[in-house]
Design goal:
Length: 459
């Protein structure tokens, strides 16, 4: 559906407008969308836990994703260790005990920063999940893969890893070929199985991205590998619509169902679709706020992801204290969705499918671009403008001048000129690394054409 059809379908009624404008209310937190007076008060000792069926460990349903740690305002984007320490301290204080990182996160700095923050606390008070992130063919050899694995112990300052994942299974053009090269043909998976037997890995699993043949194959080998957990993307939009958003993706209903059949705990990533389910169009904000005026938009997605009994923990990349506090209010304790509320979210997802955004989750796996583009920033600015109604269809659009200015000014503020879409040469280096299967060069060209038409006033 195009923008004109969308507006015709939903209109701009007073109820929607009034609730949408509530975002400008004085005292409203711009991160969570909650006014200070309405923000829930946190209470210690209320965290909801799930039991790991293998170990009997109580794992917090809210897990800390360490892919988006805060940075200092310097050209090198140095991680802000002092703030990271405060975030970790607060999370542990309110019962979060699962921390998920990777050698690939934060330009290779996440494990070290996470290790520094957690090492200040008793080892038994937290569980660390990290990954063997040997994405590049240069790291596929047994020697390089095991070097990465052993380095994780050093960076995290631990002598055992609670949850280790084969990272990004199914990514790329041929997921089975990559699986064999990264983990099987080189004997690395056999090595990790032996490490689990020796106790240096407490739980072994994999994170799934894209190629369903690989997911099905690994589950068919469950009797051999005895997967302790599997990490999947699950949210109320992906439950039914993942394959419509991206043909390479598989609906979360299938992924979760296959794990449930085998009693394999699910660890959930992307409950907010890289933040897109917290930055929804105004009419969706209005719909959710009518139902729960005092709750954040994001809380709906987090309640959804945490409700299924087979979910061990739900990961959230909480960059700011406001993110953490809002999620703590959702999970301390978790109030599972009712059937009526679940259907309400499925109906909401159906409405959202009429509003076309690019399925970028800001994971930054496409970076760095060899030609300097800031690919995630370009895509996220476009999505932001779509959600805010600032992508004019043509010069006859009622809000053309306002939307044109908002898009162009915001583009220059969000993305330095030398990193904008017009510098894409279609080298295609980025495309195989995108877990969402976005045709990035095509989108760069489309956005650049759109920008040029806006600049010239020829749209």
């Amino acid at each position: 559906m195009d923008r004109r059809g969308f507006l015709k379908l939903f209109g701009s009624g007073a109820a929607v407008t009034t609730l949408a404008l509530a975002g400008c209310e004085s005292g409203k937190n711009p991160v969570t969308g909650i006014t200070a007076s309405a923000a829930p008060q946190l209470e210690k000792g209320k965290m909801t836990y799930r039991t790991n069926p293998k170990t009997g460990e109580k794992v917090s349903v809210l897990g800390y994703g360490c892919m988006r740690w805060p940075t200092l305002h310097d050209p090198d984007e140095t991680l802000d260790q002092e703030t990271i320490n405060r975030l970790v301290d607060k999370a542990l204080e309110y019962g979060v005990n699962y921390f998920d990182t990777s050698p690939a996160y934060c330009k290779g700095r996440s494990e070290r920063a996470t290790g520094i923050a957690l090492a200040r606390h008793p080892r038994e008070s937290y569980y660390i999940a990290t990954k063997l992130s040997n994405f590049s063919p240069s790291t596929w050899s047994r020697e390089e893969s095991l070097k990465m694995y052993h380095n994780s112990f050093k960076e995290l300052q631990v002598d055992y890893i609670d949850y280790l994942l084969l990272h990004g299974i199914g990514m790329g053009e041929d997921g089975m070929e990559a699986l064999n090269a990264r983990y099987i043909d080189n004997g690395v998976l056999d090595y990790l199985l032996a490490e689990r037997e020796a106790g240096r890995i407490r739980n072994l699993g994999f994170s799934y991205h894209g190629d369903i043949k690989v997911f099905d194959y690994l589950l068919s080998q469950h009797d051999k590998y005895k997967w302790d957990f599997v990490q999947i993307q699950l949210n109320y939009l992906d439950w039914k619509h993942a394959s419509e958003i991206n043909k390479r993706n598989t609906n979360a209903e299938y992924l979760y169902g296959e794990l449930e059949k085998r009693n394999i705990p699910a660890v959930i990533m992307e409950p907010l679709l890289g933040g897109r389910l917290s930055k929804v169009p105004d009419h969706i904000v209005a719909r959710l706020k009518q139902k729960e005026p005092e709750r954040s938009v994001a809380s709906w997605a987090f309640r959804y992801a945490g409700t299924p009994a087979g979910v061990l923990t739900v990961l959230s990349g909480m960059t700011y204290m406001e993110h953490l506090e809002d999620n703590l209010s959702t999970y301390c304790p978790l109030k599972p969705l009712t059937q009526e509320e679940t259907q309400f979210l499925y109906d909401t997802a159906d409405l959202m499918m009429h509003y076309p955004t690019i399925p970028c989750n800001d994971c930054k796996y496409c970076m760095p671009c060899p030609y300097g583009l800031d690919i995630p920033a370009i895509l996220l600015h476009y999505n932001k403008c779509v959600n805010e109604g600032n992508v004019p269809e043509n010069r006859q659009a009622e809000n053309y001048r306002k939307a044109r200015q908002a898009f162009l000014v915001g583009y220059d503020r969000s993305v330095p000129k030398l990193r904008q879409a017009d510098h894409c040469i279609n080298c295609n280096e980025c495309r195989p690394h995108c877990p969402q299967g976005i045709n990035i060069p095509k989108e760069m060209n489309r956005i650049n054409d759109f920008v040029e038409h806006l600049k010239q006033g020829t749209l």
